[in-house]
Amino acid sequence: MKKRVGVLALQGDFHRHIQSLEKLQIPSKAVRWPDDLSDCDALILPGGESTTFMNLMNQTGLTEAICEFGQKKPLMGTCAGLIVLATEVVNNHIDPLGLIDLRVERNAYGRQINSFSEKIQIPSFTDQPKFEAVFIRAPKIIALGKGTEALGFYLDQVVMARNERVLAATFHPELTRDHRIHDFFYREFVERN
Ligand code: GLN
User: Which of 7, 28, 76, 91 lies 20 to 30 Å from 69 when distance is taken between CA atoms?
Assistant: First the structure.
């Protein structure tokens, strides 16, 4: 039986992640309360606004629930989702969950108007390492800690990284028709867990 991937649905573009999973015929579920995690085998934290995520997660009890869930189950965070999963945010009073050892800077490319779409390189996608990535008020990864591996590159920057159970991207793989990152997450993290 296929495993079910939850998508944090408090705010942001969670619906696009659900659509990407549907395209890959992966069962999904919108997660709004801690109980929703009970029949999920993994969780995606989408793009949105990381400060709003943290407030809503604290109010609903999801902060603790996701930390506990992340001790055993795989997580993927995109853009604001990456910020929430990181260990340190240098330019904000955000206390992220610390599930992947990354130091990040929020809004590091500038304002909404400085959003862009560019080809990045993912060398482990050996058939076609180029991936069109949409960056919307994206964070930058400033440092990778122990146990964190760089997977995706744009210019001199790391834009996708992983550890044992967490996959994190500073861009939005759910906004393009190329579903290889969701597929990679499912095969390498969810199925193997
Ligand atoms: N700028 C947002 C933040 O700091 C992230 C933007 C996004 O997820 N597209 O939380």
Answer: 91
Output the residue whose Cα is nearest ligand 1's atom 5: 80
Q: Which ranges of the chain have pLDDT less than 70?
A: none
- Of these residues, 17, 40, 174, 179, which one is catalytic? 174
Count of domains forming the chain: 1
Q: Are 117 and 135 in contact (CB under 8 A)?
A: yes
CATH number at residue 118: 3.40.50.880
In percent, the amount of the chain with pLDDT more than 90 equals 93
Per-residue confidence (pLDDT) for residue 94, from 0 to 100: 87
Structural domain for 124, as ranges: 5-190
